[in-house]
Amino acid sequence: MSQPLSYLLDGVIGVQSGFEDQQISEMTLDSRAVIGGYLFVAMNGSQEHGLKYAQKAEQSGAVAVIWEYVDGIDVPELSIPLIAIKNLPASLGGIAARLYDYSNQPLQIVGITGTDGKTSVSHFLAQAMNASGGSCAVIGTLGIGNPNALEKATHTTPDVISVHKNLQRLSQRGSRCVAMEVSSHALDQQRVAGVNFDVAILTNLTRDHLDYHGTVEAYAEAKAKLFLEHRPKSAVLNLNDDFGLLLAEKLSGSDVTVVPYVIGDASDYTETTLVASSANYNHRGLSAVVSYKNQNYSLGASVLGDFNLSNLMATLGAMISLGYDIDVAIDAVTKVATVSGRIERVALNEHQDFLTVADYAHTPGALESVLSALRVHCSAKLICVFGCGGDRDAGKRPLMAAVAERLADVVIVTDDNPRTENPVDIMSDITAGFEHPEAVIIEHDRSAAIKLAVQQANTGDVVLIAGKGHEQAQLIGGVEYPFDDREQIRQALATMEAAA
């Protein structure tokens, strides 16, 4: 449904009246996508200004151009409205929200942020709500749409125009809730501006993305915007995390309803805190007792690891915030399944006497979480295969080595996604973090490293292949090669079975 340009820009600071009004059917940041009826949005990029492509956009059918004002830039002459807007990123979300209005088919929107667990919580929530008769879609790392029929995504959180367009599209398709992963980059770059969140969830906060944010403090400040600037109706906060405790304190007494969750002893917390205790773990999944408002409930699910227990608790908190009775929420959560590439059990059959797992863990905190989580499933050796991506935060490489050495019994270091970096240099950064590098196995060939790990596993062992999870390609020297850790695990298991 098209909207007048004057309506889209009404109230935007600095927009001068007097431009020729136009009917806008779509808007885009990409001049190559422009056709008739489009509004072209020219942003000031890190390499060049989008205004450079304004004439091309007009030739392709754009009926108007709005652009991010920058002093001294060459402004082309166009026959269509060309409107400068200072601080356009701050206004773009509101403009997109007006064009892609879905208020006649309202959505409940849940934003999930944190260093780890965003994908799992978003999918757990969608699975649980759909199992209880709801209609919940996801927007995140694995894709957009129903969890069982995802369309590919290019970013954890898309650009702000795509966010609003996808929300409208999901609403039109019948979704009544969307669980959206909200990254720190997205919050810093205002990619969720104009989104009204019903619920915001914090999973945790550990070191990540310092190549972008510079400091942990700046990273935390970006994450906090979801709670302190977007002002959701409810905030579901992890009290096992220091940042969760800080946010709970900052939101105390505000108009945001805080729903805390924790793994601990119910006697240490208020009755309105969701508390998981008496946890039990095996090769098939986990179980725990959940305490809430002086009542106890039994929770069980076929997912692995103590951090997934925390993710299940975040899911329960979100469902309660959305109006579900806790007994309905508990029943729905028991039906969730492992999310692709997130502590995913990979096996050829149910008779396998050791556990093989693929996980996306690619930060020190995530690797520590998954290794700690798998230790409770391990009665013998814990074998860890990991590497570090190129062209990313080099400071985390020795930290990941230290984590692996401390928590695993056998460590195999391999290539992850070297991208344009020399894999030898990446490996050198990693091995600097080992106290006993002589005990570590180095194997650059990731396929060979996975095979080596699986083939040395015995009864009661757990093998973790960390770093890529759901990814189906390896990036080497700027080239993308097909590669799936899970398929590599299956091939190694098949080779073992054939040789037995």
From TrEMBL:
Motif (Meso-diaminopimelate recognition motif) on chain: 416-419
Keyword Ligase in annotation: yes
Binding residues annotated for meso-2,6-diaminopimelate, in chain numbering: R392, D416, N417, P418, R419, G467, E471
Record domain Mur ligase central: where: 112-318
UniProt keyword list: ATP-binding, Cell cycle, Cell division, Cell shape, Cell wall biogenesis/degradation, Cytoplasm, Ligase, Magnesium, Nucleotide-binding, Peptidoglycan synthesis
SUPFAM superfamilies: MurD-like peptide ligases, catalytic domain, MurD-like peptide ligases, peptide-binding domain, MurE/MurF N-terminal domain
Pathway: Cell wall biogenesis; peptidoglycan biosynthesis
GO biological process: cell division; cell wall organization; peptidoglycan biosynthetic process; regulation of cell shape
Modification sites for N6-carboxylysine: K223
Modifications made to the protein after synthesis: Carboxylation is probably crucial for Mg(2+) binding and, consequently, for the gamma-phosphate positioning of ATP.
Subcellular location: Cytoplasm
Role: Catalyzes the addition of meso-diaminopimelic acid to the nucleotide precursor UDP-N-acetylmuramoyl-L-alanyl-D-glutamate (UMAG) in the biosynthesis of bacterial cell-wall peptidoglycan.
Annotated HAMAP family: MurE
Annotated family: Belongs to the MurCDEF family. MurE subfamily.
Entry protein name: UDP-N-acetylmuramoyl-L-alanyl-D-glutamate--2,6-diaminopimelate ligase
Organism of derivation: Leucothrix pacifica
Gene name tied to this protein: murE
